[in-house]
Design goal:
The chain is α/β, with parallel strands linked by helices and about 450 residues long. The chain has 14 helices and 19 strands. The strands form four sheets. It has a six-stranded mixed beta sheet, sandwiched between helices. The chain has a five-stranded antiparallel beta sheet with strand order 7-8-11-10-9. A four-stranded antiparallel beta sheet has the order 12-15-16-17. Helix 3 links the parallel strand 2 and strand 3. The chain is globular, with a radius of gyration of 23 Å.
């Protein structure tokens, strides 16, 4: 199969032919991303899909501004729209590659969402797969790349998926395509700097120590049918947490159980860091022993009942500086605590209920009875200037719980662009106790993850 046909087949399998939303392509100006943009446009033009190239200036090289200009010129020449993004502020002295990667993903996700793009294409190749394996052998925590995965930026990347159509293609093949089309590209000197693990792995690859032919896109555990089955069996508990029958876990194999539980803990807590291996192993052992217990891990509270496992936010995080208040602007979608997207029609502050329950009115106290007792301290409430009483956010604003939606993406349930929408089931059920939720008029976005 020719390279162009291979890439088209991947795009056919993941993207919606009928959609008119833009397809975002991360464009650094390097050979892989320039080739990806050209091949994506080959697919998009006959389908009338707009393509948006996004370039991030990390500010780490004196030539970075010139690289961004080159990327913009290349996008214009090829017929794609372009947006230049910049990583500003102080840069860390240690862990720079990881920090740059995190900043890049956040900027790309924000820009894609702002333009209505739910999928970002990245130019990782078969060579990157092999280099990543070598980096992990050196002790890097870099995760294995997948063809289809959720954006790692949270909450900036909510409902944004990443697609890597070139994982079965070598870097050399892409350079051949560029030469055939008369396209130029940039060589980043950092790729040859031995201070960085990626550059060392690339050098080994060029010397023949690593073989691109051995590269195979890893089938991520989240795409495994067993993990998908567990995710589908996991319900939104109506208050931002997750619940699943214990039999669903005990009937599943250990590796699928481990992958699912790690994802569920992160999603229910609203955080971004997975649990540590040893503590996760201890939790899995207790579950396997069919113990009835309560535990906390990775910012989540685990309630293991006899028949059901409930995973919710650890409200004890309040004492450690978590669940911080956030000021909401009218009509602006804001993410509070990494768990709830909230739109209010008036300026107010969102806080955790902990310490404020006694000040709720009778209607709010009645509505609160639908929430599991352990989850109540972490329920969002709205506080307006000049008003003594807080109001449950789900009764005073449009609130969407994010845990289940995020879990579905992490576990591979969402496998195609047309499935990547906002589910009505994620609207907090407390709203239904008062009125039917409506789609909010969103003028902009702000975020908070404490």
């Amino acid at each position: 199969m020719r390279l162009t046909e291979h890439v088209a087949a991947v795009l056919d399998g993941r993207l919606d032919h009928r959609s008119k939303a833009p397809i975002a392509v991360a464009l650094s100006g390097g050979g892989d991303s320039v080739a990806l943009l050209a091949l994506t446009l080959d697919w998009a033009r006959p389908r009338a899909r707009p393509v948006l190239a996004l370039s991030v200036d990390h500010g780490l090289n004196p030539d970075s501004a010139a690289w961004t200009r080159f990327a913009a010129e290349t996008a214009e020449r090829l017929g794609a729209a372009h947006r230049a993004l910049a990583w500003t502020g102080e840069k860390p002295q240690t862990g720079l590659p990881a920090a740059a990667r995190a900043a890049r993903h956040a900027l790309l996700a924000q820009a894609a969402r702002a333009e209505g793009a739910g999928v970002i294409l990245l130019g990782h190749t078969a060579d990157d797969v092999v280099e990543g394996e070598a980096m992990r052998a050196e002790g890097s925590s870099l995760g294995a790349v997948r063809e289809w995965s959720p954006s790692p930026a949270w909450p900036e990347g909510r409902e944004v998926m990443l697609l890597r159509p070139l994982l079965g293609v070598s870097r050399a093949e892409l350079r051949d395509v560029l030469r055939e089309r008369g396209l130029r590209w940039i060589e980043d000197p950092a790729n040859a700097d031995p201070r960085f693990a990626r550059a060392r792995a690339r050098q080994r690859l060029s010397e023949g120590d690593l073989t691109p032919a051995k590269a195979r896109p890893e089938i991520a555990p989240g795409r495994d049918d067993r993990v998908k089955t567990l995710a589908r069996a996991c319900a939104d508990d109506g208050a931002g947490g997750l619940a699943i029958a214990r039999t669903a876990l005990t009937d599943c194999d250990p590796e699928a159980r481990r992958v699912f539980l790690s994802a569920a803990l992160v999603c229910a807590s609203g955080g971004a860091r997975p649990p540590r291996g040893a503590r996760l192993d201890a939790l899995l052992a207790r579950l396997a022993a069919e113990d009835v217990f309560t535990a906390t891990l990775a910012g989540a509270r685990v309630e293991a009942e006899k028949a059901r496992l409930r995973i919710l936010r650890d409200a004890g995080e309040t004492a450690r500086g978590g669940l911080r208040p956030v000021t909401l602007a009218p009509g602006v979608a804001s993410v509070w605590d990494g768990r709830f997207e909230i739109v209010a029609d008036h300026a107010c502050e969102v806080r955790p209920l902990k310490g404020l329950a006694a000040r709720l009115d009778a209607a709010d106290r009645a509505a609160l009875r639908a929430v599991p007792a352990a989850a109540r301290p972490g329920v969002p409430v709205l506080v307006r200037d000049g008003q003594a009483r807080p109001v449950l956010a789900a009764r005073g604003a449009w609130v969407r719980a994010l845990a289940q939606s995020r879990l579905f993406r992490a576990c591979g349930v969402i496998a195609h662009e047309r499935e990547n929408g906002v589910s009505a089931h994620s609207v907090l059920r407390l709203v239904s106790l008062c009125s039917e939720p409506e789609t909010p008029p969103v003028a902009g976005e702000q975020r908070s993850r404490s």
